[in-house]
Design goal:
- The chain is an alpha/beta fold.
- The protein is built from 16 helices and 19 strands.
Length: about 400
Amino acid sequence: MVSIDKVGYGEYLLLAEAPMFKRRYTANGDIMLGCTIGCDFCIYRMIDTTIPYFGTGELKRLATPEEFAESVSNSRLISERSLVIMGARGDASMYPNDIPKMLNTAEKLGLTTKFLALRRAILDKTVKHQLADYPQLYYGTTITPKAIETGSPVPDYLQLKGLQNVTDFLNKVSIEVGPVTPNNIDAVKGILKELKDMGWEKAMYRGVTVGSWGVERKEAVEKMIKLGFITPEQAKQALESPEYFYGVKNNLDSLMEKAIQNMFEEVGLKAYRYAGQFYADNWDLPVPLTRRNKIRSDILEYAKKVQYPNKDLEQQLDYLGYYDHDVKWSNEHGIRVAYVNTKIPITEDVAMYLGEVTGVAIIATNYLHSPNKEVLKHYLKYSFLGIPERAKKNIMRKLN
């Protein structure tokens, strides 16, 4: 169990209790916590509060479909242009019948938000029908090369076969190839060729991620070494990382990355290194221009084609309860930059929302990557994540 005084405690608490638990380029949520698929390399098998729900057959309901839609509607950190993920802590295949119910409620509430259901399980005809019936719904899947050998029970050849069900919706399905390791990189090009043959023109690729919360980092790293999932250099980075959760995230060495890029080029697919690039380039998502309180140069070119809402920054700060704010403006890298000072820290969640709705790069002079105990109370007071009353009571009980 992570101590209440530790950095990141707020996000750690939300992770196991709230339908919406964080927002980056997307708002990350789930109707159910957990996944019966149980990939060996899943980071949620290295968090003490989520371990019981991954690969065990047990799932935890975080909200009814109706409550989830209401949570989105009530969240001040979700705009009419946001992309909301389902399956951020699991797999959307765990609750296929809940997705239409949620979307029907979202329609009644007048939500224009896009929803992205992440699903490693094979995309079947149910997915096809949902994509046809709901314009706001998108699907995303991750195909792991040499899946069985790498540690995923879902064979990559069956995932590719399942994609044939959704070829009428190429613009509504995102595909990520990964995690790519030294042991499976030789199978990447074959997957790309099959995608190309089915009509896909673009895909993302991903490196490895190792993290832990409430579990000793050494234990997590040793497990990944035994799986052959990480290299000695990645293991060293993970053990030495000062991060409270991620040891390494989406990590690829330069030689592997160059090899993968060459494969995309040879096959004739457009490659995206990061999801934010894909969302901006293909789904008109107004992606924030910063990450971890720094301007993110790799996103700027993709963001140029997006029309941002251009809401007033100071009004948005008031809307979020930051009444004591002070803003200093700058122009850097061809974009507007706001240096924002507040008494209550601005977290990554808040900076991402502000960047999305204003089109401004937000740099906070009083910054926390994720909420601590006191900042989480501010989240709850101003309904940052639209948490249902039942979950809010559970969280407040643990905070006091």
